Amino acid sequence: MITSVTNDTVKYVEKLKKKASFRREEGAFVVEGIRMIREVPEQRRRMLFLTEAAMERYPELEGWCSRTELVSEQVLRKLSDTETPQGMLAVVAMAVDGVRKPAEADKAPLYLVLDGVQDPGNVGTIIRTAEAVGASGVLLSRTSADPYSPKVVRSTMGTIFRVPIHIEEDLPAALRKLKQQGVAVFGTHLSGTDFYQADLTGPLAFLIGNEGNGLTPEVAAEAEHLLRIPMEGSVESLNAAVSCSVVAYEAYRQRRA
Length: 257
Description:
The protein is an alpha/beta fold. The protein is built from ten helices and ten strands. It has helices at residues 8-18, 20-26, 34-39, 52-57, 73-79, 120-132, 150-156, 171-180, 217-220, 240-256; strands at residues 28-32, 45-50, 68-70, 88-93, 110-115, 137-141, 165-168, 184-194, 204-209, 225-228. A six-stranded parallel beta sheet has the order 7-6-5-9-8-10. Strands 1-4-2-3 form a four-stranded mixed beta sheet. α6 (120-132) packs parallel to α7. The radius of gyration is 20 Å and the shape is elongated. 39% of the residues are buried.
């Protein structure tokens, strides 16, 4: 049993938990709780950490991966990112396939593109929405919240393992490449046309901007169509995840119809 919080393995997991650059370097991230751990595909399992109580409660986790470490309650609390740890966490590998290209996806792929969306809850909710509407993938600018941070991972409720995700170093260049492949790029803007009037049945990418400042000028310039979500009263804008869900589900509705 690992009982020391200064153990090298404990330090390794802590660094994964706290540093996005280290997660990228290692190609790994941390998940917590029985629900998330049950979602992890077998080929992406690296390490499992359990307290004695958790091992007794969930005997099915025996043999979950090739490396299982028994840890003290104190060590588990040190590693955990939650106020009430469930007695287990795991190190898992990031997916390496990235976002599916249009030729590999459906005839009308749908991408959700995040430009500087910084709230972890918003990023996690958008990833969940992506799976719900059958999106081909989520693209994120480097200035967006890291999709593999503990808070984002928790808020995805397991969809982090099923939705293709790609962090773009040059988001405008990635959008230009999508347009070359026949994908129409849509941005939301107060001066845009009513999005309920738009044809959203073809290959498309929705741009979702920063919570406070919206889309950066460089990314907004790549939008071929500007859409406006109609709103009553004095409301000027919606939460980033809410806006994304509204437009993504209209595309979903049109495609089903």
